[in-house]
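Page 47, continued from p. 46.
Same chain as before, 262 aa.
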Amino acid sequence: MKPVSPSKVKPKRIKSPRIVHQHERRSHWWALLLLALLAGIGWQVYSFGVRQGGFLEAQSNRELSRLNQELEQSSAALKEAHAEAVRYRRQAEIEVNASRALQEQLAGIEKENAALKSDVKMLRSLISGDNGSLYVRNLVLQPLDEPGRYHYAFTLVQVLEKVDVTKGKLLMKVSGKLKGKRKRLDRSEFSADGEKVLKLEFSNYQDVSGEIALPEGFKPESLLIEFLPRNKELKKMSKRFAWDDALAPPSAKLPGADHTEE
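Result:
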């Protein structure tokens, strides 16, 4: 037998046998079982979530629909309430304006009624006192800016019913002192038109007004107003007024106008 040369011998790999222990197989089974259990639980949770989510969505949609309906109803009610408020406000404004106009009208009537009562009282006193049928009403003297100049206004009234038209001449005289001496000025001396008398023709009353220009240094004390009627039924009227009693503040508004017949 020939010896084998070492260089010709091929080495062989020896595989060691694997030893499988029993406890390793059991661990794999437990892991697979745990994974299956977790998958089942996950699926149950997912299914529950889907079912629960669907239920909440339906409930939310119903609640949202109900809220939208209530919102529409509230909006409609608010719109109607606003329109009703506008109607009430307009009605209130109309009533307030009507009430204000009525109050103003009532105040005017009361003022007119008071003036009429005053006129009636004055007329009765004149008639009962046998003062005649002509008299002067509301004499006012108002100082002007220029010294010695005054504006005057008064009303000449005739109360006799049987006289339709009163005709006559009006005379005015200012009495006072000039440089310490008594002096009387006729209308021609203080009136701008230079006329001594003023011719009048009126029915029941006549407003008379004008200006008085006094000489420098003249101190007025009284004003005499006379009316000489042409009507046979009427008597002469002569009335003297204290100057200071008839004076009005410079800013006062005087009634009447020159030769205005009403």
